[in-house]
TrEMBL record, chains A, B, C:
It comes from the Bacteria. Residues 33-137 form the Rieske domain. It comes from Polymorphospora lycopeni. Its cofactor is Fe cation. This is Aromatic ring-hydroxylating dioxygenase subunit alpha. Keywords: 2Fe-2S, Dioxygenase, Iron, Iron-sulfur, Metal-binding, Oxidoreductase. GO terms for molecular function: dioxygenase activity. InterPro entries: Rieske_2Fe-2S, Rieske_2Fe-2S_sf, Ring_hydroxy_dOase_asu_C_dom, Rng_hydr_dOase-A.
Length: 375, 375, 375
């Protein structure tokens, strides 16, 4: 689906209207699967985290059997948060700090103090549908999205050689970006901007000549080669001298970019992964949570992850500056959607999917479409 | 009116909708009596203060006869404030700093410079209805609320033994709370949260076993006993070794909580009062003005009010943290109003009154209802 | 058009409503001529500036022939700004930092990298109508305002003796004012407030006894005499001992105030000019760009402009404090538009023009009205 100079971007209102933003928040984020980060952030039974899905609080609990459970992060009594947002605690029960209501780790109400008789209504925590995939935890606030494996589709086999489920988070960083979340996605989906925006990246990675993947499902992605002079995505091109052992010859010299809409970017390099998770805050504001993931072997060998952290932190800031400038440039009435370049085919695919979801009321991550039988 | 586990809280929109907030601001605050603080803040003739009633400016002036007068804090010429908000000045006239229009302390226009002939329209300051009660000044921006004594009702005799009109403000503190004003009120109306939220308070005061008052009028309240081990509401339970002399035996060992809706909390302890005055700023933001009041005898004796200031400042911050967590918890779509506990009967009375005012267009502080004659 | 105490100000909503503000932004600022500042800020071919017209980005470029050109500050590809807002750069082409699209200084697209064939659509920069007048650059985003000379009208001959086109900017300062832009204009149009608001100014300039100009066109203005004891608008009344040589005897002792609606104030004194340019940000927020202009002779002689800078910076801050107090005073429901004073005739003319533009859909700077032939 090469746009060939004829396809054009979305109109300005898609990036500046509060009503469009509210629609997207309700349909794209709260209406389907969104990523809550790494599951191993909750390591032990009793670990509990307060997380944020597009402004809605979600409580994640590792129960006594070691299974992760997710609930609305809201006490059934008066609505107090059960764990403060962005915090992790370890406790044998879920405990509301306001009136000391106590829930078991499976979400059932254990005690409401000073009730006699106890309240007879169902006051267990409201469950939130969740699922895990290769180390990441996902939630579906709507409860009726297709099963997560159908949405992930063959991205699973594409990422399998990196064994993401065995990686360790060695660094993380949160960014506030003054731009609409779609501009951050669009920026991720093309490397046409790399030569002008990313001089450091362009020294170690080719910026053209790659290919887009042809997913069977809702994800998008493509890959580009490391330059011959470079061995890793780092400021000087040197890395840990190690490569994921299951990669084929191509992948061992490629940087592979994968978007699982609406919110997870997985960038796979020969020796590490870096992920970006988007949290939409307002039509012109997005929080981006970036994590660096290294294989356990390298962590055990004492590899300093600074080579990857410095590189992507440099690249991140260049990207956010570009996105923020576009946000300003398309505000104020002077923007006409321009033609997409041949190297923006993935971006085009994404925009077509957004436009379709505007029409259908979508979510943005459709599962594999049912194949229509031939008549 | 024990809720008995069946009554439930208000829906989330009551705490998150801008439209509900605008309604409440216009009907509850600007539509009836609100408290402007202590009258003796303006001690001498010519003293003038610029105050704020839910975003509307009010000018308070002590006139030559020593009487307090209240006006819109807006010059009749072009609208400049007459005294800057939150400031007190002493001047023989009311003087607009913009074009030097001068008003007498009774609000009549004395001079509009460079008019010849003088403007013939009525350009006296726009009066605001006001009244005092036991040292507090109240304003009614609507002008047609029932008389203040009818709204205060028997709260007057309930507080009489503390002689509030003779107390001195020994400390004050302003808090910005990121929560809807009703959450701050609800938090004040129950001590069900005390054991978990207020460990210091719970060491010196019992948190159950008290009674609610049965007011004849618009106020609400209840009382709880000091613990046997404590003599005062302080971090270590010791106080000034003095008790209001007119208290009966019960009151001399009780902490009494009184709400005069929508905005004044009067907490009476055996040796001091503390008050909270709410100023609604936005649907999710409330300013709280806290004042500590001590009897003149203790002030004259050089009593350090720190024992009460430290105690309530600690308690205040715990309360605001809880209110702010509830505000977050009920935002984002995952909140279902829960059942109120038996110890939340006052809160229930308040919510019924709010819901009634939503329906009738209220104000929130009804005067004593006319008794229907028997048929 | 002396208001004589009967004419009144605009209702509060004109200064507090978001809808009124959006109307004014679209009709008054983006619907006609607005000032972009001094043209000589871009001195050499290749100089480029990113400017702001009421939130819309404008790119100004001095082309190879030395002519100023203006465009939307938005790349035709994806909308990135071409020059960052409030920045000036010098480059042989217009270059988008995002994807390296290149435009010639005349706005035509020179290169879109990696297109083969090149895009066949018209992708030249979107031109913005502009014009210069006596050293100032103006833009008309609507493209259909009357010619700038018709809007400027006889302000041109009024200012001619000061030869503004030959002056040098010797200082500039940006202010954020928490008031509606019209309050800033109204404050400029009367010196009735000077005795009370500006003690320093009132020591060197008379505050009454002047005259309003009777323009044939869209501008407004008036003049007031220097006091006999003063030689310049400075804190101590002393100046550089020099006077614009072409001024007549009256002008040589006058301070002359000129408003070219909606956004340019030109204050002409016997030895320097000071200008204010308004940028509306929100209904209660205005950015004011102040510039001090001295004749080349004084600059060449090494005159320290501090005498004028200190004086107007003092005066500016007094004005903004007054405007901000009015903004607060007219918010909250207690404001009734008051009678305008005899010395507020210019302000009255301005308000009548605003009210007329509300009715007709504006813009605010009408050209000379066509004279109706006698029947």
């Amino acid at each position: 689906m090469r746009p060939a100079g004829r396809a054009r971007g979305l109109p300005a209102a898609a990036y500046t209207s509060d009503r469009v933003f509210a629609f997207e928040r309700d349909r794209f984020w709260r209406g389907g699967w969104t990523c809550l980060g790494r599951a191993d952030r909750l390591a032990e039974p009793g670990d509990q985290a307060g997380l944020d899905v597009a402004g809605a609080g979600v409580l994640v609990v590792r129960d006594a059997a070691g299974r992760l459970r997710t609930f609305r992060n809201t006490c059934r009594h008066r609505g107090h948060e059960l764990v403060a947002r962005d915090c992790v605690v370890r406790r044998p029960t879920v405990w509301c700090a306001y009136h000391a209501w106590v829930y078991r780790l499976d979400g059932t109400l254990r005690n409401a103090p000073r009730y006699d008789p106890p309240p007879d209504a169902d006051l267990d925590l409201l469950p939130v549908r969740s699922a895990q995939w290769r180390g990441w935890l996902f939630a579906d606030l709507s409860g009726d999205a297709p099963p997560l494996p159908d949405v992930v589709g063959d991205l699973d086999s594409v990422l399998a050689p990196y064994r993401p489920e065995e990686l360790r988070v060695v660094a993380s960083r949160s960014y506030d970006v003054a731009a609409n979340w779609k501009l951050v996605v669009e920026n991720y989906l093309e490397c046409y901007h790399c030569p002008s925006t990313h001089p450091q990246l362009s020294r170690v990675q080719r910026t053209e000549g790659g290919e887009s993947f042809t997913p069977t499902d809702g994800w998008l992605g493509g890959h580009l080669d490391l330059r011959n002079s470079a061995n890793a995505m780092s400021l000087d091109g040197t890395g840990p001298g190690w490569t994921f052992p299951r990669l084929d010859e191509d992948a061992a010299r490629q940087v592979r970019y994968h978007l699982l809409p609406p919110d997870l970017f997985v960038t796979a390099t020969p020796d590490h992964l870096v992920t970006h998770r988007l949290v939409p805050v307002a039509t012109d504001r997005t929080r981006v949570e970036c994590e660096w993931l290294l294989p356990a072997e390298l962590v055990a060998a004492g590899t300093d992850p600074g080579y990857a952290v410095d590189f992507w932190h440099t690249t991140n800031r260049q990207d956010w500056a570009a996105c923020e400038s576009v946000q300003r440039g398309i505000s104020g009435g002077g923007y006409r959607p321009g033609p997409l370049a041949p190297h923006e085919d993935l971006l085009h695919t994404f925009l077509v999917r957004v436009a379709t979801a505007y029409r259908t009321g979508g979510p943005l991550s459709p599962a594999r479409p049912t194949v229509e039988p031939a008549p």
